[in-house]
Amino acid sequence: MNFESTISALCYTFINKHSDKHQSMLHFPNNQVVEFVRSQHRNMPDYLKLPLFILTAIFDLWSIIRRGKRFHQLPPTIRGHQIAAWKMSPLRVCRDLMRFYESLTIFSYYASKEKLT
Asked: I need a surface site. Which of 72, 87, 105, 108 has the fewest CB within 10 A?
């Protein structure tokens, strides 16, 4: 599994959903956001790192069943559908995983945007 690609695809999808549709190319912090989210995972205690890694791998591979490709290989609109499905899942762990990534992504995105203003 390409953990970094999955995190990147999640971050880009959340940024696209929450950002201004006509964001300036002068402010394109997406890679910084991805690095922030990755660093949060790296800084976690070991007992949290592995479960998050496994859940993220399951999320990435889940789309093979439904779409024939891993999550990070899907087009952005289809990614959004999978995220929405996991956010509405009856399994709390699925909803919490999406909340974790979305919260970190949006926090980092708007924090970096504030630095420029």
From this structure: 87
